[in-house]
Amino acid sequence: MSNYSLKNKVVIITGGSGGIGYEIVKKLAACKAKVISSYHNNLPANISENIFWIKRDLTQSSEWDKLLSYSKNKFDKIDVLINCAGILEPGEFTSLDASQVHRMIELNLISVLIGTHKTLSIMKNQKSGHIINIGSLGGIIPMPYSAVYSATKFALRGFSLSIAQEYKCTNIRISLLTADSVVGKMLDRESENSRPTISFYNDPLLPKLIATEIVKLIGKPKAEKIIKGNNKIPAIVLGSFPNLFQFIYPFIEKRSEKMRKKYLERRKLEIK
Description:
Number of strands: 7
Shape: globular
Low-confidence stretches: none
Radius of gyration: 18 Å
CATH superfamily: NAD(P)-binding Rossmann-like Domain
Oligomer: single chain
Number of domains: 1
Mean pLDDT: 91
CATH class: Alpha Beta
Strand content: 5-15%
C-alpha cells in the first residue's frame, strides 16, 4: 500500500451514510480521493470538500444511471465502486412480511448486480477499474433468525467470486471484503431480537477497521479478503459441514445470547 496513492481517484460508495459506509467515506476522503457517496434517507455532515453526497434509491435501475452519469460527467471516470448499502431484518423467517423479504433481496443483492453490471460497462470502456462488494461471514456460515440476510450474502459471495474469475485477466478487479459482525445500527437491530444470532458469538469489529481494510484492498486487490477475527476459521469449517453446524449450533446459540446481552448493556452506556 505504501507505493499506492488514492489521491484524485474517483470512488463511488453506496450506503455512505451508514456506520460502515460513513467510516469508509471519511477514510477515503482523508486519503484525498474524490468520493461520491449515495445515501437514501439522512444526509450526513459534509466532512470534506472531497465528498459529494447524492440521494438515490439504488434498488431502482434508473437511479443507478443517474449516479453513474453524475460521476462520469463530473470526473470523466470511475476508478472504484464500493457496494456497501445493505439492510437486515432479524427474526424467525415466518415473522417477516413479504415487503421485508423483498427489500433485503432488492438492496443487498439485486441492487449490487444492477450497479455492477452498469459500472462494468463503463470500466470496460476505460479499460480499468475496481469493484468491491461488502460481504459477511453470514455469506459463509448460516445465520438462523437472519436467514434472508444470510441468503443474500451467500448469493453475493458466489456472484463476486464468479465475476472475479471472469475479469481476472483484465485491468478490472472484482473483490469481496468479508467481515465478521460490526458495531452499528444493523447489529443494534439484531440485538433487539429475542432470539440471538451467531453475530454475537464474539465481540464485533469496529467500523474504522473495515474502512482501513478497504483502503488496503484498493491498494492490493484480491478476489476475497476475510478480515481476521475469532469467527473466521470456525465459520469456514462450519460453513463447509452443515451437519456439524446443526450439531454444534445449540452451544453457539447459548454463548450468543450471553454476548448479545453484553452488547446491549455496552451500547446503552455508549448512548448515554
